[in-house]
Every structure is written in structure tokens, then in C-alpha cells.
Specification:
Strand 1 and strand 2 form a beta hairpin. The strands form 5 sheets. The protein has a 6-stranded mixed β-sheet, with no helix packed on it. A 5-stranded mixed β-sheet has the order 2-1-10-5-6. Strands 3, 4, 7, 8 and 9 form a 5-stranded antiparallel β-sheet that branches. The protein is globular. It has 5 helices and 22 strands. The mean pLDDT is about 95. With about 350 residues, it is mainly beta. The protein starts with 8 loop residues before the first helix and ends with a strand. Helices cover about 10% and strands about 35% of the residues. It folds into 2 domains: about 230 residues, Oxidoreductase, molybdopterin-binding domain (Sulfite Oxidase, Chain A, domain 2, Alpha-Beta Complex), CATH 3.90.420.10; about 120 residues, Immunoglobulin-like (Sandwich).
Length: about 350
């Protein structure tokens, strides 16, 4: 189905139960909880925190069962982590893949507090043959005609070294139900699907996990017959706060002639952001913005700013693009794939200067 043919009822149902972060929320370095993007694959489970427990087992010498108070009694870490849905920008592709119809706002940065995963893993003493760690949530449903709990896996080395957190707090308060109460996995730098909510089990395995969400879902491929490659780390991306005021229906922006201060955020799951550029002519010419990185928050987005002299009345298109330390720069046009994943093409905002 193309973007010209409209959103289907199935897509509308998904869009109504999941929500994006309004772009004006980019003004906050830490996204308020109610504005952080949210995607729930199946249903939000009702969890009794007294009865809930976390099972850690599989190919380990010392399996364990932990309750919420046990986790809270352990040494805690708190990380500011930017989290983006792998399907962010899907609705901008042509033809449009049919799933949650994200535009560009499926992102947010939270302050996550919890127990470091590596300490709990090492305490179980994984076997020498262990290769992956499987994370199981309490949410259940059917996807691709497969009935399943939501499960994702990480290579054992990544689970140990990525700075993963078993989070029980978000922005200084207990996790709300929609964000995974009472416990969720947070994997800095990885797309949102890796951050399993309503965590109930952690299982060390001696062969690669073949569950739906890894072997079938979240893979970049051009057709159904391809094995494709797995979606992992977030690609380099930047977004701006739309300047001026919006038209209610179209969201087209209206600004007054003269100096206009533009602000935004940029992030990458692989390396720090080193450059952000802004174009006011639809991507023909570019100027450097000022980037402000916080060295204490490696996994949070960087702020940036740019002053635009809007001297000519009429219509124009604003764009921004980021570059990280690896040299990856956002493409001008999206790279299509079957699932609509990893679309990090430059943002384009139509503006009327009056």
C-alpha cells in the first residue's frame, strides 16, 4: 500500500494504542515520561509486584530467582539513554511497509535506574559453551501466525559489555505499566525492540536463539525470501524542534521573517555525535550547527542549535543531518527495506516565512 492510498484500519488501530513523542519535546534533555515514545507489541500485562519474580537460569551453574526487593537491594546504576523504535520513519517510505505507521517521532530519552545486568549474569556462572542470553517478557500474542511471549536475545559478550540495566525506575519513579513495570531491560545504543519490557526470565543458552522476534522479526531485507541481517544498534540521526507555530491540520510551520533560533537533538548507537548540519533550502546547501555533548551521558542524545536568518518571505524546507565519530552521516533519501527499519534519512520540515 502506498502512502497515497491512506492509512488502513489495521494501521490506525496500532497508531491509536502506541504513541510518538511530540517533536517539541526535544526541548527537554530528559523526556517527560508521558511524552516518551511507546510501542506495545501485544497487551500491557497487569503485574502483581508482590507475586512477581525474575528467573535467571539456563546454561549456568548457579540459577537464581529474584524478587523486586532483591533487585532494589543490589548496587544500582542510573543511565540517561536515548531509545528509538527500529521502525521510526516507516510511514515515510514508498511503498509503505504495513505496520505501526511511525513518522519521525518514535524516540525519547529516559533516566533509567536499576541493577547492572553483568553482575547478575556473572553470579550465575554461565557455561563455557554459552553463546547468547534470552530475555522473556510477560506480554503474549500472535505475530507472523506464531503464538509467543515477547522474547529477544543478545550475544553473551554484548549482554556483559554493553552496560545493560535491569531497570525498575524511569525518571526517578517506579516504571509505569506501559513502560514495563515492574522490570525491563535497557540496552544502551540498541533500537527499542531489544529493551524487553515486563521482564520475567533471563535464560543463558548454548546455541543461537531462534525465536520469532530475532529469527523472523526485526531483520533488514528486501523480500520475504532473504534471510537478511538483524537490526541492532541505532543509526546516526538528528531531529529539530519545528520552528514557529503549526497549521492545525497539516502541521506546516509558520515563522516571522527575521532571525529564527533552531534547536534539536542528535544521537547514534555506535559512536558519539561529532557534527550536525542544517539546510534551509531542502538539502542543497548545508551549514554547521553548534553541538553540545554531555560527556557524562554517553548514551543520551546531544543537543544542537543553529540561528537561521529567515530573510525571504515564502516557502522553504528545513533539514538537519548528523555525523558520528565513525563517519556515518544521515542519507538524504531513505533506504527502503521490507520491514521499514532503520530509516535515518534527513528530517524535512516545510516552513512558510511571512
Amino acid at each position: 500500500m502506498s502512502t497515497e492510498s491512506g492509512i488502513s484500519l489495521d494501521e490506525l488501530r496500532l497508531a491509536a494504542r502506541n504513541h510518538a513523542m511530540p517533536l517539541e519535546a526535544l526541548r527537554w534533555p530528559i523526556t517527560p515520561v508521558g511524552l516518551h515514545y511507546l510501542l506495545v507489541h501485544y497487551d500491557v500485562p497487569l503485574v502483581d509486584p508482590i507475586a512477581w519474580q525474575l528467573e535467571i537460569g539456563g546454561a549456568v551453574d548457579k540459577p537464581s530467582t529474584l524478587r523486586l526487593d532483591d533487585l532494589r537491594s543490589l548496587p544500582a546504576v542510573e543511565l540517561a539513554v536515548t531509545m528509538e523504535c527500529a521502525g521510526n520513519g516507516r510511514a515515510l517510505l514508498e511503498p509503505r511497509p504495513i505496520s505501526q505507521p511511525w513518522l519521525s517521532e518514535a524516540v525519547g530519552t529516559g533516566l533509567w535506574r536499576g541493577a547492572p545486568l553483568v553482575a547478575l549474569l556473572d553470579a550465575t556462572v554461565p557455561s563455557e559453551r554459552a553463546v547468547e542470553v534470552v530475555f522473556t517478557g510477560l506480554d503474549r500474542g500472535v505475530e507472523g501466525e506464531v503464538e509467543q511471549r515477547y522474547e529477544r536475545s543478545l550475544p553473551l559478550d554484548a549482554a556483559r559489555d554493553a552496560g545493560c540495566v535491569l531497570a525498575y525506575e524511569l525518571n526517578g519513579a517506579p516504571l509505569p505499566p506501559q513502560h514495563g513495570f515492574p522490570l525491563r531491560l535497557v540496552v544502551p545504543g540498541w533500537y527499542g525492540m531489544t529493551n524487553v519490557k515486563w521482564l520475567s526470565a533471563i535464560t543463558v543458552v548454548e546455541e543461537p536463539f531462534s525465536g520469532y522476534q530475532v529469527a523472523t522479526g526485526y531483520r533488514v531485507r528486501q523480500n520475504e525470501d532473504e534471510e537478511g541481517r538483524p537490526v541492532t544498534h541505532m543509526r546516526t540521526r538528528s531531529l529539530m524542534v519545528p520552528p514557529g507555530i503549526p497549521d492545525f491540520l497539516t502541521r506546516e510551520r509558520i515563522v516571522d521573517r527575521g532571525p529564527v533560533d533552531i534547536h534539536g537533538r542528535a544521537w547514534s548507537g555506535r559512536a558519539p555525535i561529532v557534527r550536525v548540519e542544517v539546510s534551509v533550502d531542502g538539502g542543497t546547501t548545508w551549514s554547521d550547527a553548534r553541538v553540545e555533548r554531555d560527556p557524562d551521558h554517553r548514551w543520551a542524545w546531544a543537543g544542537w542549535s543553529y540561528r537561521w536568518e529567515a530573510a525571504v518571505e515564502g516557502r522553504c524546507t528545513l533539514c538537519c543531518r548528523a555525523t558520528d565519530e565513525t563517519g556515518e552521516t544521515q542519507p538524504l533519501e531513505p533506504e527502503w527495506n521490507l520491514g521499514g527499519y532503520e530509516n535515518n534519512a534527513v528530517q524535512r520540515i516545510p516552513v512558510i516565512v511571512r
